[in-house]
Amino acid sequence: MVKTLEWTDDGVRFIDQRKLPTEESFVTCATYEEVAEAIRNMTVRGAPAIGVAAAMGIALGMRDAEGDHAGELRRRLDEICDTMGETRPTAVNLFWAIERMRRRFDEISESTPAQIRQALILEAQRMYVEDIAACEAMGRHGAALLPSSGGVLTHCNAGALATCGYGTALGVIRSAVESGKKLHVFADETRPFLQGSRLTAWELMKDGIPTTVISDNMAGAMMRLGKICAVVVGADRIAANGDVANKIGTYTVAVLAKEHAIPFYVAAPFSSIDLATPTGAQIPIEQRSAREVTHISGKQIVPDGVKVENPAFDVTPARLVTAIITERGVAQPTYAESLQKLAG
Ligand code: MRU
Fold it and tell me: Ligand 1: which residues within 6 Å by Cβ?
């Protein structure tokens, strides 16, 4: 399995997702500022991967932080967490990870600085291991929902590259294929950043899972032709009522799925579920640079001066979501109750 990110003695190592699929190269971030920049510029992306990357960045910053008492270290932690929190606003996993690192600090703040530093490194490493286990559990829960054969559409990349390994939506597909189901994946290319054509197709080709890339505007036609039996996507944040923020274009796919009576599944770990946010209307949507839309591979594709919008995410209302697959089980509508119940 591809190593999306890993803790090393030299820093946090990422596969550079901006270079895929034509170049497999790695970057090592030696400081927490470099980790924050890697999240911002999408060297690493995908909600669960962003969360664990931020935790490792915090651990790295604290490892190198000067200070010989807890008060000084606490001030440093606050600065580092603020920097991490300003990288990308939509994926709640980022804020979940920051809170978890803060909590761990509070638990051990009476310990020596060396013990605090070590405990934070261990916490980030624990989150890494837990993320892979959560993906595998989602895979087990979700595989049963997919048909024994046929086409499954996915949008963006919710695979090993978006997590610490195995993936959420792609984890469900991987698990179904491992259990003997004969699936064919349709990967939306996912303009403008092309996570589907560059990353999802790359991962699935490596695994030998049959895959067809389509441009985003082909999804409806493929459904109408009967080529798609189910849709599985990931999530960047799920509100308490089950509204789902995910990569721009997900909402369009959900509407199309409803029209064609195709089940629309969302696979996400509990670190993506934000019970403190009542509905999708309160989820902050990241606006990215116009250049992602105006240029492809450095080549300008729109006239000079034209207006451009580039929201990175949209919100799919809960009523369009057939089920939400988590590591704790599958939530069915009504999500306000089922998510709360799974949360325990
Ligand atoms: O902008 P990105 O590439 O970070 O957006 C990623 C997505 O929208 C994914 O679908 C989502 O994070 C789920 S990843 C398991």
Answer: 45-48, 91, 156, 158, 162-163, 168, 195, 234-236, 246-247, 312
Q: Tell me how crowded residue 75 is: count the other CB atoms within 10 A of its CB.
A: 12
Q: Mean pLDDT score of the chain, rounded to an integer?
A: 97
Question: Does residue 181 carry a pLDDT above 80?
Answer: yes
CA of 157 to the centre of ligand 1 (A): 6
pLDDT tens digits, 85-126: 999 999 999 999 999 999 999 999 999 999 999 999 999 999
Distance CA 279, CA 39 (A): 26
If one counts the domains in the chain, the total is: 2
**Residue range 47-88, pLDDT digits in tens:** 999 999 999 999 999 999 998 888 999 999 999 999 999 999
Distance in Å, CA 248 to ligand 1 centroid: 10
Q: Which of 16, 189, 195, 313 to mutate to test the pocket of ligand 1 (most atoms within 8 A of CB)?
A: 195
As a whole number of angstroms, the distance between CA 80 and CA 55 comes to 10
Which residue numbers are catalytic? 236
Domain membership of residue 148 as a residue range: 139-343
Q: How far is the CA of 274 from the centre of ligand 1 (A)?
A: 16
Q: How far is CA 334 from the centre of its chain?
A: 24
CATH number at residue 69: 1.20.120.420
Sheet of 26-29, strands arranged across: 5-8, 11-15, 26-29
